Amino acid sequence: MSKEGDYAAVAEAIRKIIPKEGYDDGSAGPVLVRLAWHASGTYDKASDTGGSNGATMRYKLEADDGANSGLEYARAFLEPIKQQFPWISYADLWTFAGTVALEYMGGPKIQWKPGRVDYADDSNVPPNGRLPDGAQGADHLRHIFYRMGFNDQEIVALSGAHNLGRTHANRSGFDGPWVPNPTRFSNTYFKLLLNEEWYEGKSPAGVRQFYDEDKDLMMLPTDMALIEDPKFRSWVEKYAKDKDAFYEDFAKVFAKLLELGIKRGPDGKAVVNVLKAEAKL
Q1: Active-site residue, from 37, 38, 94, 235
Q2: Are residues 24 and 120 in the same domain?
Q3: Which of 80, 133, 227, 279 has its CA at a distance of 20 to 30 angstroms from the CA of residue 194?
């Protein structure tokens, strides 16, 4: 067992579980990134609630949010690592695993800080419905991301996470990968958005999505909104042309995402807003 604070040992253990024969293109990497994303993306700046502190997806109310369907696999993949390193909180492990997986898959290094704590009960679980709905458009994206404190450029940069992974008809209703190599981080997603012809269709579950000509790749309505909205499109064009700029901006905004709602005490540990917790009891 490593000593407390040995994050290099935790990172090495995470890297060892990323190759995953028989699961989603042979890699757990994309779903680990999604876990970090969804654990953090519940933040609401107006009420200062939600975010990655607390690891509240351990509780049924948040785990059962439709937007989190499939993330039980990511949490299960990380459980042996939690047992191996009991000193790391779930909240730190989930977010840290996302950064390790991103770098493992060729993405940029993400600045990450430890210190998150795990809430002992579900009294601080944020309301369901705070995560993006892929069936919506530009207004929905702005509503969701502005609530967290992001601007248009940051929305597009974060959407670049769709360079990784695939959708599943039995989870979200959508089906298929966004890019030909969904286990390698790149700016291909932006290039495809602009350069492919996309045709409206239905997934095997009957959900509206868009396909390329060969139906090998797909895009969500929220993806198409990025090229239909002029302000979003200007950033898509920039990132399609300049991979380095995309990596730099993605690293900044992903690090910001993982820190949403966290206030740390002098010891570096995240503090719980006890008054809010009590108000919900």
Answers
A1: 38
A2: yes
A3: 133
**Is residue 165 very low, low, confident or very high in pLDDT (cuts 50, 70, 90)?**
very high
**Does residue 264 have a pLDDT over 90?**
no
Question: In whole angstroms, what is the distance from residue 204 CA to residue 168 CA?
Answer: 10
Please check whether residue 2 lies inside any domain of the structure. Answer: no
- Predicted pLDDT at 279: 38
140 as an active site residue: the answer is no
The answer to whether residues 18 and 123 belong to one domain is yes
Q: State whether 118 and 191 are in the same domain.
A: no
Query: Do 25 and 118 reside in the same domain of the chain?
Result: yes
Q: What is the mean pLDDT of the chain?
A: 94
Instruction: Exactly one of 37, 178, 198, 235 is catalytic; name it.
Output: 178
